Amino acid sequence: MAHKEFKKEDFVKKDDEYQLEYAKSEIGEGSNLIVEEKNEDGTYSVIQVPIKRFNESIFIAATESFDGRIIFE
Fold it and tell me: Residue 66, Cβ neighbours under 10 Å: how many?
């Protein structure tokens, strides 16, 4: 499985949430997306966050920014 890591700074504040934007061409249609948050000890924990699609983009939404990664096939 492929993955992309992201940092807190990669999030964009939009209204009352933070968003990451990926093009569908970067990660595919998104049927098997897993979002993981990076823990202080360097391990990852799976978290549930809203994933939104609009046109050719996929948005990861969260109430606060965090370091982590998205796993996809």
Answer: 17
Nearest to 62 by CA among 47, 44, 49: 49
Rounded to whole angstroms, how far apart are CA atoms 1 and 55?
25
Residue 44 is inside which H or E element, if any? Answer: strand 44-47
pTM: 0.85
> What amino acid occupies position 47?
I
Tens of pLDDT, residue by residue over 25-39, are 888 765 688 999 999
Residues 6+ apart with CB under 8 A from 29: none
Closest by Cα among 26, 18, 27 to 66: 18
Q: How far is CA 32 from CA 2, 3, 27, 57, in A?
A: 11, 12, 10, 15
